[in-house]
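Annotators were shown the component list below and the corresponding predicted structure, then asked to write short factual statements about the assembly.
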Amino acid sequence: NAGVTQTPKFRILKIGQSMTLQCTQDMNHNYMYWYRQDPGMGLKLIYYSVGAGITDKGEVPNGYNVSRSTTEDFPLRLELAAPSQTSVYFCASSLLAGPGSNEQFFGPGTRLTVL
Amino acid sequence: AQTVTQSQPEMSVQEAETVTLSCTYDTSESDYYLFWYKQPPSRQMILVIRQEAYKQQNATENRFSVNFQKAAKSFSLKISDSQLGDAAMYFCALGAAGNKLTFGGGTRVLVKP
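Structure shown to annotators:
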C-alpha cells in the first residue's frame, strides 16, 4: 500500500493563478482531510470529507474548494492564489471516527509558494 | 471551539535522559481523543501515541508515555531514554466530532549527544 500520496511536492504560483493539489489514498478510508501548516505553526483544518460526495468546511476554508467524487481522491483547489496561501499543505485520511479506528494517516505534504 | 496550547516552544534534552512536553486543551465535547504527533525535518507527520478521553489509564508506547489529567485538561508527553532520532517537532492534537483534529503550535525537541 502506498498510503496517502500527494502531488506535486513543490509548487510556485503567481498571484491570481489557480491550481489543484492532488490527494489519493489506497486504504479504503472513509474520512479525508486537508490541513495547512504555516511556518513555525501547527496544522489547521481547511476542509474534510466523511465519504464520497460529502464535504464540509474546517477552520480556514476561505480561498479553497474541494470535491470528493470517489473514496480514493480528495483534490484541493485554489482558484485565485494569494501570498497568504503560502504554506505546506497536508492531506490525511482515517478509516472512521470511532475508538481504535481514528488514527489519521498523513501524506508527505505539498510546499506551495505564492509570489 | 476547541483549543490546544503548547507552552514550550523548544525543549533540550541530553541523550539517554528524559524530557516532558506540556499540552493543555479545551473542549466542550464529552467524547474526544488526544494525540501526540512527531514531525521530523522530512515534514512527515508520524503518530507517536493516542489517548481516549474515556480511558483513565495513561497510554504507553515503548519509550513514550503520557500523563492525562482529564479534570485539568492536561496531556503531557514523556520521552524516556531520549535518542538522537527523537529530535523533531512534536504536536499535541485534539480530535472530536468527525475526527477533525485541532493542533497545538508545537514544541521543538533538541537532543544533545
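Statements collected:
1. The interface with chain B takes residues 31, 33, 35, 40-45, 48, 50, 56, 58-59, 88, 90, 92, 94, 96-97, 99, 102-104, 106, 108-109 of chain A (CB under 8 Å).
2. Chain A has a mean pLDDT of 93.
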